[in-house]
Amino acid sequence: MEGLIPLVNRLQDAFAALGQSCLLDLPQIAVVGGQSAGKSSVLENCVSRDFLPRGSGIVTRRPLVLQLVTAKTEYAEFLHCKGRKFTDFDEVRQEIEVETDRITGVNKGISSIPINLRIYSPHVLSLTLIDLPGITKVPVGDQPPDIEVQIRDMIMQFIARENCLILAVTPANTDLANSDALKLAKEVDPQGLRTIGVITKLDLMDEGTDAREILENKLLPLRRGYIGVVNRSQKDIDGKKDIKAALLAERKFFLSHPAYRHMADRMGTPYLQKVLNQVKPNCTVDNGGYRGSLLPWGRIGIPCKNS
């Protein structure tokens, strides 16, 4: 076996099979953001497929451990549906909804028990991402009044770990200083060593405004900086706009925008994928231990047998 990512995936699967969150300090990338920040679109663009549930209120109600594997053929597998290959990604979405309701019920409750989804595709780079519930402040339906605290605690469970890279998703048409994702990230990573800012909805900013200072890392600096992305609009999603066409439109947006064209090669979903793929652990497994376990943002919390 080459690389640490497959081992991490197996460990995450093993804990999920026991109905528990993985408590080991494994290298992972957690996606954090408020409701309607564009987290789902960022993830779908990374996969080049529509596969995540959408709707109002809290849609992601359990952590989704999304294991992307570069392969010649395209299909998906769930840990809880062993042996079944999903080639229809509408069925993947339906299965996420059914499995979420099975544990949390249908009244918008949340659970820290993850759903493990592995997607094989020639259109992905090998990554493991964890999609966490959107940060909310107002309970809806039968949600408990402390739902904000529950979600915050769940997010902190993941991002407080030293080996967790934080993908803090914030829409450009809101005040960056009030970004819930960046606030939480700063609590556990005050120096910004393991936080990447992702700025969405750049195309929805008021005319005459732009996010140049943010993207140039001048406003609220992070050691790893910010990457801007342009997702599909709700109209595009409802109209089933092809993600590949959307990625071409995203590229055109950055190349043609006067505030961003000078940094176009450091913007967009493909660049974000490349960055995340490069910062993953570059390790091999040897005789049951780890070799070269120093991560770009920390050290693995499991001892190297041969060190």
From TrEMBL:
Its keywords, alphabetically, are:
Endocytosis, GTP-binding, Hydrolase, Microtubule, Motor protein, Nucleotide-binding
Query: One Pfam family from the UniProt entry?
Result: Dynamin_M
Q: Which biological process terms from the Gene Ontology are attached to this UniProt entry?
A: receptor internalization; synaptic vesicle budding from presynaptic endocytic zone membrane
Using the record, list the residue span of the signal peptide; answer none if the entry has no such feature. Answer: none
The UniProt entry, under InterPro entries, shows:
Dynamin, Dynamin_GTPase, Dynamin_GTPase_CS, Dynamin_N, Dynamin_stalk, G_DYNAMIN_dom, P-loop_NTPase
GO CC annotation terms, alphabetical: cytoplasm; microtubule; plasma membrane; presynapse
- Reported EC number(s) for this entry are 3.6.5.5
CDD domains with a match to the protein in the record: DLP_1 (cd08771)
Domain Dynamin-type G, first and last residues per copy: 23-296
**Repeat as UniProt keyword:** no
SMART domains documented for this protein: DYNc
Task: Please give the Gene Ontology molecular function terms for this protein.
Answer: GTP binding; GTPase activity; microtubule binding
Name the family: Belongs to the TRAFAC class dynamin-like GTPase superfamily. Dynamin/Fzo/YdjA family.
What's the protein name? dynamin GTPase
Organism name:
Anas platyrhynchos platyrhynchos (Northern mallard)
